[in-house]
Specification:
The chain has about 375 residues and is α+β, with helices and mostly antiparallel strands. Helices cover about 40% and strands about 25% of the residues. The structure holds alpha-D-galactopyranose (GLA). The site of alpha-D-galactopyranose has 11 residues, from helix 5. Alpha-D-galactopyranose binds next to helix 5.
Amino acid sequence: MSLIKSVEELFTKHYGGTAKVVSFAPGRVEFIGNHTDYNQGPVIGAAINMGVSVALQRCEQTVFRFTSGLYPTVEVTDSSKQLVGKDSWVNYPLGVYNALLSRGLKPSGGFEMSIDSDLPHGSGLSSSAALELASAVALSKAYELDLSNEELALVGREAENNFVGVPCGILDQGVSACGKKGELVHIDCSTNSFSNIKLGEGYSIWIFNTHKKHSLVDSMYEKRHDECFEAAKELGVGYLADLTVAAFDSGKSKLSPDVAKRAEHVVYEIDRVNKVQELLLGADSCVKDVGALLFQSHRSSRDLFENSVPELDYLVDILESMPAVLGARLTGGGFGGAAMALTENTFTKVYAESVSSAYRGMFGEEPKVIHCWASDGARLIRS
Ligand code: GLA
């Protein structure tokens, strides 16, 4: 059954009738720019052909109902309060509702929402941003707000930072909002400007998810975030993106060894993102050279930012030895999660399976393999 049909059926099953509004938002792959976003640097991602769908209907009673294929139904009457424990997944759409209040949403009554997803669970493809964006598209339609997808990306990030409580940057929401078929999304995080870059025909993106998750993944993310801000402060700038490579190199001796490594990763990663952008926009876009920068990015995450794990390093090493692979790296926050590979289209399932079986030989279980392609961003399916 298609995702849209299943979210509509879920709606009917729980609330009766047919939902007024149905939306979809994709998951994302971080192409390059590891932990550059909250340092106000640039980042490049791709929206993918899998995501989250929301079906919605307003109701007269002041009650907010959420149901999903994955979790039990949740009902709240106070939309301004965060939920804790098993119901906390509702904070994503509820956070979006709250962020829309400051953008003209006039509260009256409540709503009923059903949610479904075809993103493999815990796949590191940012199902939370997809849920935020699908909710933002559906809610802004239901409450008659006229907001651009760029604005909805900011709404999603605000929900995540202020309501869910994760100090993430704009990457996940920006890519889910502004994806385009066959194109990557470039975000200048210092100005929140979004643009698309053609990837070109003949290339594929493969995801290898380790399903490993560092038990402290959220606090490790915050720790890295704080180390980056400490480095910027010590070096007399607002953000690490305000430093050139040369300025960083001449000031880095002021930093403690760990903080210097984190900052070095970010400053050089920003330089790599700029190079990738130039290469792809160049007259004869050199995707092979882009691949080399993806491998460099991984090594920098591994050695300097120290957010890789042996499973991801192993995957990137095997992928690097395969002929049709142009580049590979960890994608997203790190400390577990997934590796992505940019390949020529001659890289097939058979190659992917050989990576999986080598991985199984080493770690005893297979990674989840997903072949995906750059796709359109968040959108209304019907109203
Ligand atoms: C997570 C965050 C993003 C970004 C990446 C690392 O995916 O949600 O904002 O910081 O990690 O680049």
